[in-house]
Specification:
- By secondary structure, this protein is an alpha+beta fold.
- It contains 4 helices and 5 strands.
- A 5-stranded antiparallel sheet has the order 2-1-3-4-5.
- A hairpin with a 2-residue loop joins strand 4 and strand 5 (144-148).
- 15% of the residues are buried.
């Protein structure tokens, strides 16, 4: 009886093919991995922040700023109603110097990002919607993106 399944006939070929696929998948540049990780962190943080979750995404705030963040966030939860938000721009930096991110050239690493957001909010006791632009300053530390927050614009 003749076997027609190629992977049973050529087990070494099958192993080599699997190895090549794994190596190809692992060759993604560090820049593209950082971009992907930043995108995920932005979605989770902004969802927690705008939905007034218990901690408001404080797990993504740098340790030095976390206590102040939580105090101001408790005031935001009671005074601010979020209606819309939109990401307007991303700017990338390496040690304070702007860089353009090119996923094909991993030499141009970045460790900071400024994400410009547009928020439409109402601050009680007013029910008037107001738009304002807010920059989120993100820093890559210990293989994780962390926010250096500025919540003062939400409390004016």
């Amino acid at each position: 009886m003749k076997c027609t399944h190629p992977f049973r006939t050529y087990p070494i070929t099958a192993c080599l093919l699997a190895l090549i696929l794994c190596l190809t998948a692992g060759c993604a540049s560090t820049s593209s991995k950082k971009l992907e990780q930043l995108g995920k962190v932005l979605r989770v943080y902004n969802n927690a922040f705008e939905s007034k979750s218990e901690n408001g995404g404080s797990m993504y705030v740098q340790n030095d700023y976390r206590m102040d963040y939580l105090l101001k966030y408790s005031e935001i939860k009671t005074k601010v109603s979020f209606h819309e938000s939109q990401t307007l721009n991303h700017a990338y930096y390496r040690d304070g110097k702007p860089v353009s991110v090119n996923v094909e050239d991993p030499e141009k690493e970045f460790n900071e990002a400024v994400v410009t957001m547009r928020y439409q909010i109402a601050i009680s006791p007013s029910n008037v919607l107001k738009n304002f632009i807010h920059d989120q300053h993100w820093h890559y530390e210990n293989k994780m993106w962390l926010l250096k927050p500025n919540l003062d614009p939400f409390l004016k």
